[in-house]
Amino acid sequence: MRERIFGLLDHPSDQLDGYQTSAPDGNWTGRLDDRAWGKSANLFCYFTDIVSAEGYRLCVFFDKEYRPARGGPAMDQEPLGRVYRITTRQNKKRLPQFVTAEPVDTAALS
Questions:
Q1: Which of 71, 73, 76, 74 is nearest to 87 (CA)?
Q2: Could you tell me the CA-to-CA distances from 18 to 2, 48, 102 in Å, in that order?
Q3: CA distance 56 to 21
Q4: Who contacts 74 (Cβ-Cβ below 8 Å, separation ≥6)?
Q5: Is 69 exposed, middle or buried (0-12, 13-18, 19+ CB in 10 A)?
Q6: H or E element: which one contains 102?
Q7: CATH ID of 18-109, from 2.40.50.140, 3.40.50.720, 3.40.50.300, 3.90.420.10
């Protein structure tokens, strides 16, 4: 059963504005902190980079079953707190594209 996900406009957290929309280009490891439904069949995913502690907002879309563009789990079904190996690339508009996400065994990070 999926955890409740709030819409962006009625989300109870006041922390979401602190996440950047300029995720690094390439591979990085991030923890899923939160999610919020967008306005156009999209889901915003809020991650904290495990190394830099920077927060980033990435987006997945309904037409991809809320999965990253080239593979990964359906982010609307994933538990908060899970850690992923993430790939992001700049698109033509120089915005980060959420390319892949692969769950990471957190014991291996220690």
A1: 71
A2: 25, 11, 24
A3: 6
A4: 65, 66, 67
A5: middle
A6: strand 96-103
A7: 2.40.50.140
Write the pLDDT tens digit of every residue in 38-58: 998 999 999 999 999 999 999
Those residues whose C-beta lies under 8 Å from the C-beta of residue 29, and which sit 6 or more positions away, are: 49, 50, 51, 83, 84, 85, 86, 104, 109
Delimit the domains of the chain by residue range: 18-109
Q: Which among 53, 12, 14 is positioned nearest to 30, based on CA atoms?
A: 53
User: pLDDT digit string (tens) for 54-96?
Assistant: 999 999 999 999 999 999 999 999 999 999 999 999 988 888 9
pTM across the whole model: 0.91
Indicate the residue type of 94: R
